[in-house]
Amino acid sequence: MDEASDDQAIGSFLSTIHVGDLCSGVATEITRSHGVAVTLDGFTAKPLGSVWPLDLPWGRPRAEAVQVGQRITAEVLAVDLEGGHVRLSLAATENPELWTFLNRLDRGEILSGTIAAIESFGVFVALDDGPDHPVFPGVGFITIPELSWSRFEAASDIVQVGEHVSCEFLQFDTWNGEARLSLRAMKPDPFQVFADGHAVGQTLRGVVTKLIPFGAFVQVADGIEGLVHLDELAWTPVKTPEDVIQVGDAVSVVVIDLDRERRRLALSRRQVPVSAQ
Domain 190-276 sits in which CATH superfamily? Predict the structure, then answer.
């Protein structure tokens, strides 16, 4: 079989496979970095399936999870027609109740639960109506950026273990078998509200909240901070923000850029009209 006809045969075979299907085959190779290569039933010419390390069964040593020559049945997570590849999950088939629950969720759906654990990378939520997770403290997970619209130092500034919360469902994370949630989506985005009532060129009063090597952050409304770049701090060049400004100073600033998409506010102290200083 030449390369063109081989690619055509692979494409035809993969076109019959869809995300969520169960596929069976034989494990033909196991590597530490790439997981398990699988020769799928119906196409024995080469292994088209793979079970990545994170998609292997949970709670068992990797060396014991699958053996070369073993027949497996796994759920399809992704089909790459161009690359001629199917990504499979044994974690899904070994945790059918969890996968069924997560597959039923719709983006934007509101889920409630209790904060089960707080980590540096996010917060686990034990969902009221969800099953237990075989590995993690909860099926729900809130990443740090999705905790609040406002800037904060630690997740514990926003939530506490044992607190009951309602969140918006964002997506089914098939890597970890969890529901990605957003707590901040339960409130209006204060930046968009601010942008609705303000425009470039407007002069505002604010308080300096933080100094960084290339500028200063100024809070101009509740939960709204903008950056005054070093070049915009004064008419004359300055080497560090501390040369002209300190945390806690009340200052006048001009809006020079208002980026709704990236939620960024750029301010200038240098461009403030003399009459407003």
Answer: Nucleic acid-binding proteins (2.40.50.140)
d(CA 134, CA 117): 15
- Which positions ≥6 away from 36 have C-beta within 8 Å? 27, 29, 30, 50, 51, 56, 66, 72
Q: Where are the alpha helices (DSSP H) in the chain?
A: 3-14, 62-65, 90-94, 96-104, 190-197
Task: Give the single-character DSSP code of 188.
Answer: -
Residue 277 has pLDDT above 70, yes or no: no
Q: What's the burial of 203, exposed, middle or buried (CB within 10 Å: 0-12/13-18/19+)?
A: middle
Q: Is the pTM of this model over 0.85?
A: no
Distance, in Å, from the CA atom of 53 to the CA atom of 23, rounded to the nearest integer, reads: 18
- What 29-34 contacts at long range (C-beta under 8 Å, 24+ apart), as own/partner pairs, is 29/68, 30/66, 30/67, 30/68, 32/62
Per-residue model confidence as pLDDT tens digits over 140-169 = 999 999 999 988 889 999 999 999 999 999
Tokens of 169: 């469902």
The phi and psi torsions of 186 (rounded to 5 degrees) equal -75, -10
User: How far apart, in Å, are the Cα atoms of 178 and each of 119, 123, 130, 144, 250?
Assistant: 15, 12, 10, 15, 45
Whole-angstrom distance, CA of residue 207 vs CA of residue 82: 54
How far apart, in whole angstroms, are the C-alpha atoms of residue 70 and residue 28? 8
Q: Give me the architecture of the 96-186 domain, per CATH.
A: Beta Barrel (2.40)
Residue 198's pLDDT is what?
94
3-94 CATH fold:
OB fold (Dihydrolipoamide Acetyltransferase, E2P) (2.40.50)
